[in-house]
Queue: 2 jobs
Job 1
Amino acid sequence: MMGVDKNKQDQLMYISLDDLVPKEHLLRVIKNKIDFSFIYTKVQHL
């Protein structure tokens, strides 16, 4: 029997942003080639 789901607003959907970016995306390549860890110390005071 079909009906109206009145509880749709109570439902949560968890997604990972990592899952939304394609594996061959240019930003993934850049991330794997360049070490950006230095940025954290540069902006720590902010």
Job 2
Amino acid sequence: MPDIPSVVLSSDEPFGYLGRGDANAFWPQLLDAGVRLADALDAAHVTRTASGHFIENQNSALVVERICSVFSPAKAC
């Protein structure tokens, strides 16, 4: 993977994506995928997002904060 500043945001609430399958049955795999992605990117992994799948809608302030932390880690946006 390229060495670029990154952050991984993971929902902390199981969600049914498009009503397919049991969200709780797939929850452990989704959590593991976030961990693996963060490890592969050597990125911060934010797991306390107070959201389901649509983090940008449910906690937009967190998304903006984390984007700013990637672009300017020494100062706030």
